[in-house]
């Protein structure tokens, strides 16, 4: 799982394109000159706007980290296991290359022509090839570890190719390189080496990559990185959420970017417009500078809203809280004027580490957050592992090593915690230990069934009793236990789930993904990912009404909540609590303060009568534009 995303397709595309150009060049074509021209002229790439702000600076494309594979021998009893490791690495490599090949269709034709044969050659080498036959033989006959066997066999084949009597020296070198390249990929997968280091990104640079995982994004320093642009990724994936949380101007889903961007190129990135202009001419640069000034001015204006209440013109208070993904955001939360944390994603505790955080480490982490937040409410969501939230610690035998045919539908969220109750128990215990230091609630992720909530509550109460027996002070009335409504199943069973829950938080990111069967982090289907789709809105309405009938608190904590244009609709549906990335709070507050609840309710009725997604968009954007201006 882990290394499936840690591959280096960007490098492959860049190298492949160059190599392809050489090959055409040998035939005397115009292609090399065209390729060079493509890389010297101003070139704009459009993507998905992710995190607002302007960045002007040099491009820094991320590099592969060389996979360390010291020579290693094995014992005769380890041969079978070693052959299996090799088989797993081959399967993973095939999957990575297959994914890359599927993406070729969206590249310019020239790039496709250059890359397709190369990828085919790689895939062929992962079949019944001499490389693999030789590596398997070396494992068995020479008792070598899989990576040593692959390396040795690749070098032997490369040496033989280069020794051939052929005038086409460039062609021979290319073939030898191809064998080495596939061996490198196998070694990377065998040693689970991530493919890049983000430590060397120079200050003020715009980071350009094929793909960034949420764990990569968590390592970025917003004080150093001016902006981020990637080829992969969708608007509401966790990488996008992390980038917004860090306030780094970002554009994801920029098709063809890594092919044309080169390290050191000047670039202007506009996170609101979703564009990156490489090698800008004077006019584009000037426009970028103007936008940068306008953005800073707007931010200063919004900062003045911090102390003003979030109340509609007719006096209805609206709770505006922050989502927190990493503790580094705590100062931002205070600056934004949030009324507490509406969603603390605890995944950060499990990221970028090789072991699991124990109860004590978790207790300390929660205590720090609660102390920073004083008496403001903090809703801690228990671990939501799964899908794109790829975590090293959990892969060490705790999470399923085999993700199954549909990881998003498999053992993730609360399902995993109920299967591994020791994880849930440690988390409940850590929260209960610090519960009296602040105003805390607990939230359960990815629920589809009332019985799951019941089961979790039983564990919760058992943990509380155990702590009390040990003499730990636990509040008489346990912190509330709420449920994320983020699957159509949960939304449509909301009335039954409400009987088991103390509050609801509607997670529109996953709700939209599961309702529309569109991966929220997948650039190629991002045009279909639409939280305003009537199917999603109807499910939200159903769940909200189920909660309101029982006078049970309900909030929205998906990315929708941070879009000022959507505030009238959400208020009109009866929502009075929104949790979002901290930097979105001022603009959402500005919208709330400009709205009348009666108008919002009438507007929401009009929207909910519609079943055409396009028409809903028009209505929402038109009405929302007024609110956005304040
Ligand atoms: C959601 O799904 O809307 C949500 C808030 O949870 P996450 O984005 O962490 O999956
Ligand atoms: Mg979710």
TrEMBL record:
Location of this chain's protein in the cell: Cytoplasm
The keyword NAD is annotated on this UniProt entry: no
GO CC entries: cytoplasm
InterPro entries referenced in this protein's UniProt entry, alphabetically: PEP-util_enz_mobile_dom, PEP-utilizing_PTS_enzyme, PEP_util_C, Phosphohistidine_dom_sf, PTS_EI, PTS_EI-like, PTS_EIN, PtsI_HPr-bd_sf
Region (Disordered): 1-42
Domain Phosphotransferase system enzyme I N-terminal: start-end pairs: 46-166
Top EC class for this record: transferase
GO biological process: phosphoenolpyruvate-dependent sugar phosphotransferase system
Domain PEP-utilising enzyme C-terminal: 300-595
Domain of life: Bacteria
Domain PEP-utilising enzyme mobile: 202-274
Annotated catalytic residues: 238 (tele-phosphohistidine intermediate), 557 (proton donor)
Matches recorded under Pfam families: PEP-utilisers_N, PEP-utilizers, PEP-utilizers_C
Catalyzed reaction equations: L-histidyl-[protein] + phosphoenolpyruvate = N(pros)-phospho-L-histidyl-[protein] + pyruvate
Binding site for phosphoenolpyruvate: 345, 381, 509-510, 520
UniProt cofactor(s): Mg(2+)
Enzyme Commission numbers on file: 2.7.3.9
Amino-acid positions noted as binding Mg(2+) in the UniProt annotation, renumbered to this chain: 486, 510
GO molecular function: kinase activity; metal ion binding; phosphoenolpyruvate-protein phosphotransferase activity
Protein family: Belongs to the PEP-utilizing enzyme family.
Function: General (non sugar-specific) component of the phosphoenolpyruvate-dependent sugar phosphotransferase system (sugar PTS). This major carbohydrate active-transport system catalyzes the phosphorylation of incoming sugar substrates concomitantly with their translocation across the cell membrane. Enzyme I transfers the phosphoryl group from phosphoenolpyruvate (PEP) to the phosphoryl carrier protein (HPr).
UniProt protein name: Phosphoenolpyruvate-protein phosphotransferase
Protein's gene: ptsP
């Amino acid at each position: 799982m882990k290394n499936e995303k840690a591959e280096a397709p960007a490098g492959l595309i860049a190298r492949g394109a160059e190599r392809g150009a050489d090959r055409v060049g040998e035939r005397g074509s115009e292609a090399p000159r065209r390729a060079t021209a493509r890389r010297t002229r101003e070139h704009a790439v459009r993507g998905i706007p992710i995190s607002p702000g302007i960045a002007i600076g040099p491009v820094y494309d991320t590099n592969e980290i060389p996979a360390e594979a010291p020579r290693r021998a094995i014992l005769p009893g380890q041969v079978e296991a070693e052959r299996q490791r090799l088989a797993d690495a081959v399967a993973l490599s095939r999957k990575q290359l297959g994914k890359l090949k599927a993406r070729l269709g969206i590249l310019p034709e020239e790039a496709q022509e250059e890359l397709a044969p190369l990828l085919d050659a790689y895939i062929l080498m992962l079949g019944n090839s001499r490389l693999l036959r030789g590596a398997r033989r070396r494992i068995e006959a020479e008792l070598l570890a899989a990576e040593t066997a692959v390396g040795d066999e690749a070098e032997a084949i490369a040496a033989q190719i280069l020794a051939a009597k052929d005038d086409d020296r460039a062609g021979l070198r290319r073939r030898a390189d191809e064998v080495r390249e596939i061996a490198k990929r196998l070694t990377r997968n065998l040693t689970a080496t991530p493919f890049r280091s983000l430590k060397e990104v120079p200050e003020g640079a715009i980071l350009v990559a094929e793909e960034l995982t949420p764990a990569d994004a968590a390592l970025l320093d917003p004080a150093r990185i001016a902006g981020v642009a990637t080829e992969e990724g969708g608007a509401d994936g966790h990488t996008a959420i992390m980038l917004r949380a860090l306030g780094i101007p970002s554009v994801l889903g920029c098709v063809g970017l890594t092919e044309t961007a080169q390290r050191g190129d000047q670039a202007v990135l506009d996170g609101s417009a979703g564009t990156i202009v490489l090698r800008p001419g004077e006019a584009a640069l000037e426009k970028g500078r103007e936008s940068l000034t306008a953005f800073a001015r707007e931010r200063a204006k919004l900062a003045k809203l911090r102390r003003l209440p979030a109340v509609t013109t007719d006096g209805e208070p609206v709770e505006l809280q922050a989502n927190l993904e990493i503790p580094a955001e705590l100062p931002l939360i205070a600056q934004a004027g949030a009324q507490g944390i509406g969603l603390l994603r605890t995944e950060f505790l499990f990221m970028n580490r090789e072991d699991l955080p124990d109860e004590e480490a978790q207790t300390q982490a929660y205590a720090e957050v609660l102390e920073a937040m004083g008496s403001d409410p903090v809703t801690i969501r228990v671990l939501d592992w799964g899908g794109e939230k790829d975590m090293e610690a959990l892969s060490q035998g705790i999470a399923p090593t085999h993700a199954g045919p549909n990881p998003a539908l498999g053992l993730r969220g609360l399902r995993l915690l109920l299967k591994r109750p020791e994880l849930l128990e440690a988390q409940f215990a850590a929260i209960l230990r610090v519960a009296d230091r602040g105003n805390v609630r607990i939230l359960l992720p990815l629920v589809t069934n009332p019985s799951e909530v019941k089961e979790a509550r039983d564990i919760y109460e058992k943990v509380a009793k155990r702590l009390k027996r040990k003499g730990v002070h636990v509040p008489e009335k346990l912190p509330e236990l709420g449920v994320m409504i983020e699957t159509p199943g949960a939304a449509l069973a909301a009335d039954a789930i409400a009987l088991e829950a103390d509050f609801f938080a509607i997670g529109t990111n996953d709700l939209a993904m599961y309702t529309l069967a569109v991966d929220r982090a997948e650039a190629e289907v991002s045009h279909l990912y639409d939280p305003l789709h009537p199917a999603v809105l109807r499910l939200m309405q159903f769940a909200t009404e189920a909660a309101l009938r029982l006078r049970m608190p309900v909030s929205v904590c998906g990315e929708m909540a941070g879009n000022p244009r959507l505030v009238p609709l959400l208020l009109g549906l009866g929502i009075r609590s929104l949790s979002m990335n901290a930097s979105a709070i001022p603009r959402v507050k500005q919208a709330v303060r400009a709205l009348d609840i009666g108008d919002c309710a009438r507007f929401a009725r009009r929207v909910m009568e519609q079943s055409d997604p396009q028409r809903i968009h028009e209505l929402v954007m038109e009405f929302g534009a007024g609110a956005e201006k304040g």
